[in-house]
Structures are given as C-alpha cells and as structure tokens.
C-alpha cells in the first residue's frame, strides 16, 4: 500500500485511485483540461462558422428579402390605389360635365320647343284676333247700317207723328251727316 498523501500538498490529487477534492482544481490536470477546452472551442467555432451561422444568415437574408419585397409590393399597391383614385375622380368629373352638357342641351331643346309653341300660339292668337276684328268690323258696319236705317225710320215716324210729311232725301242726308260725324 502506498503512503497516504498529505492533504496540505497541492500536487497530489489522487490517493489509492480516488480523487481528493474537485478534479477541476487539480493543478496536475490543467494542461489536459486546457487542451480539451481548446479542442472543444475549435470544434464549436467550425460548427458555428460552417453550418449554423450560414443557415442563420440565409434565414435572415430571406426574411430581409421577403420584407423588402412586401414593402415594394405595398408601395406598388399604394401607387395603384392612388392612380385608381385619380382615375375615379377624373371619371366622376367627366360624368358630371357630361351630365351638365346633356342637361344644357335638354334645356335648350325644351326652350326651342317652348319658343316654337309660343310663336305658334301667338300666330293663332293673331289670326283669331284678326278674324274677330273682321267680324267686329262687319258687326259694327251692320250695326251702323242698322242704326242708320232705324234712325231714318224713327225720324220719318217722328215727322209723321208731329203731323208733317217726311222728306226722305232730307232725312237720309241728316242721318248720314249725323252718323258720319259721330
């Protein structure tokens, strides 16, 4: 059997095949631990740089491209919406102008028809007025002749009633002078 190791000694970490204390703190194993630490770090570095980071970079690039494409598509749709709104406003303005033009044409046509109807009515009224005036003139002439006839008859009868003999020539001359003078 071997002699027990003095616990105050820092160089002896193993006694009878059993470790005393924490092996990570054993100075005899530092070089071995540092070697394997470096091997593990180099392995992790190569795994990260050759496999993991390129995949993460590809995912990030793909996301960035998708975001850029989505933003460009949104900008294009926004531009199309603005163009569509402008086209809608232009079409609306054109429709209003066309409606006003049609309305003005309809008003003008109605006014022309109204003017023609008024002119026709005025012509009919003038014709009827002329006919009425002609009839009135005939009636006046007939009435005047009738008045003259009645006046002659009445004058003759008055002369007879007063006991005289009527002179038809004098009565006609007196009645004609009176009728023409008034």
TrEMBL record:
<keyword id="KW-0066">ATP synthesis</keyword>
<comment type="similarity">
    <text>Belongs to the ATPase B chain family.</text>
</comment>
<feature type="coiled-coil region">
    <location>
        <begin position="74"/>
        <end position="131"/>
    </location>
</feature>
<comment type="function">
    <text>F(1)F(0) ATP synthase produces ATP from ADP in the presence of a proton or sodium gradient. F-type ATPases consist of two structural domains, F(1) containing the extramembraneous catalytic core and F(0) containing the membrane proton channel, linked together by a central stalk and a peripheral stalk. During catalysis, ATP synthesis in the catalytic domain of F(1) is coupled via a rotary mechanism of the central stalk subunits to proton translocation.</text>
</comment>
<dbReference type="InterPro" id="IPR050059">
    <property type="entry name" value="ATP_synthase_B_chain"/>
</dbReference>
<keyword id="KW-0138">CF(0)</keyword>
<dbReference type="InterPro" id="IPR002146">
    <property type="entry name" value="ATP_synth_b/b'su_bac/chlpt"/>
</dbReference>
<dbReference type="GO" id="GO:0046933">
    <property type="term" value="F:proton-transporting ATP synthase activity, rotational mechanism"/>
</dbReference>
<comment type="subunit">
    <text>F-type ATPases have 2 components, F(1) - the catalytic core - and F(0) - the membrane proton channel. F(1) has five subunits: alpha(3), beta(3), gamma(1), delta(1), epsilon(1). F(0) has three main subunits: a(1), b(2) and c(10-14). The alpha and beta chains form an alternating ring which encloses part of the gamma chain. F(1) is attached to F(0) by a central stalk formed by the gamma and epsilon chains, while a peripheral stalk is formed by the delta and b chains.</text>
</comment>
<feature type="transmembrane region" description="Helical">
    <location>
        <begin position="34"/>
        <end position="53"/>
    </location>
</feature>
<keyword id="KW-0472">Membrane</keyword>
<protein>
    <recommendedName>
        <fullName>ATP synthase subunit b</fullName>
    </recommendedName>
</protein>
<dbReference type="Pfam" id="PF00430">
    <property type="entry name" value="ATP-synt_B"/>
</dbReference>
<dbReference type="GO" id="GO:0045259">
    <property type="term" value="C:proton-transporting ATP synthase complex"/>
</dbReference>
<dbReference type="GO" id="GO:0012505">
    <property type="term" value="C:endomembrane system"/>
</dbReference>
<keyword id="KW-0375">Hydrogen ion transport</keyword>
<keyword id="KW-0175">Coiled coil</keyword>
<keyword id="KW-1133">Transmembrane helix</keyword>
<dbReference type="GO" id="GO:0046961">
    <property type="term" value="F:proton-transporting ATPase activity, rotational mechanism"/>
</dbReference>
<keyword id="KW-0813">Transport</keyword>
<keyword id="KW-0812">Transmembrane</keyword>
<keyword id="KW-1003">Cell membrane</keyword>
<comment type="function">
    <text>Component of the F(0) channel, it forms part of the peripheral stalk, linking F(1) to F(0). The b'-subunit is a diverged and duplicated form of b found in plants and photosynthetic bacteria.</text>
</comment>
<keyword id="KW-0406">Ion transport</keyword>
<dbReference type="GO" id="GO:0005886">
    <property type="term" value="C:plasma membrane"/>
</dbReference>
